[in-house]
Amino acid sequence: MGISPADLLQDPAAQPEIPTFADYIPQVSRAVSDGTRRVYSTYWNHAVTAWGPRLITSVTPLEISQLAADIKTNVTPRRNARGGHGAAEHLIGALRCMYNHAVADRLLPEADNPAARVSKPRRQPSARMALPDARLFEITAVAATTGNDPALDALLIRLHTETACRRGGALSLTPEDLDLQQCLVRLREKGGTERWQPVSPTLTAHLRSHAEHRGGLDSGNRLLRYATGMPITARRYDYLWDRLGEHLPWVKTQQVTMHWIRHTILTWVERRFGFAVAQAYAGHHDVTRGARAMSSTGTYVRAGLPEVAAALAVMTGEPHPLAPGSHIPTPTALEALF
Questions:
Q1: What DSSP string describes 7-68?
Q2: What pTM, to 2 d.p., does this model score?
Q3: What's phi and psi for 16, nearest 5 deg?
Q4: 147 with 136: CB under 8 angstroms?
Q5: Lowest mean pLDDT among 9-18, 205-214, 267-276
Q6: Distance between CA atoms of residues 174 and 185, nearest Å
């Protein structure tokens, strides 16, 4: 009859009521971080559209694979699209996230998690690469001389070039995140990570001046602002790179974004200062990440703020308070940007 002794010992009244997709996904959405919600919400909406009134335990791995194939086929075409592989991967990731919460809520056992039995499409290699020095110089020059607010855009490019931060790290900056004495900015990025990152005295002064003139010095307010005093959003990045693509056709062709600058700076740091410093510069302080990349040695050779500050000092040609006595050699083409 398919009944085990354990089944007979369970109290039917104690079994939780199984929710539908339409009921459960909004609960999961409220429980995850903003970044997770931003990535997965579109795909959770697809699941609700396809299976809204159904119980979350009623869907099979085959049905999940079919929905992933449909989304892959009908993905909105974009110039940087890669055949819908990313959309299919995100759908499966979104459903795995939802079912992980369901397992934690004891709505179903781990062995019955249908999303765990669906393979994600193999991730294609990233098209991002380190930019040649001349290309980065072109981006910097165009950002600082075109558009409706070149001062803001030049500041953004310099901030990302010095810190190799992600977009979210820049957008979340507040006055409390500036350490004017030690020339540091506090970056809050994906996964709830938080770190202090060295910046040059010149950039420190410009960030302070920007906040003073645009009303961003009030406690808790966003630091980076339009000339009107309104905080910038991700739309500023879209506008900036669309404009850069109009002036620099290769930017549009290759779909260059601010993350390419992160690749560029971290590659430069790794080539000149080694993996450990590049890892710290990137904010990758996960011990297991370092151990995988450098065997067990990665656990012991993690770099700290002085090493990151020393790398920054060489790149910008400016001494840094946390890297006293650092030797500043003759600038290379990249260093000449500063």
A1: HHHS-GGGSPPPPBHHHHHHHHHHHS-HHHHHHHHHHHHHHHHHHTTSBTTS--HHHHHHHH
A2: 0.74
A3: -70, 150
A4: no
A5: 9-18
A6: 9
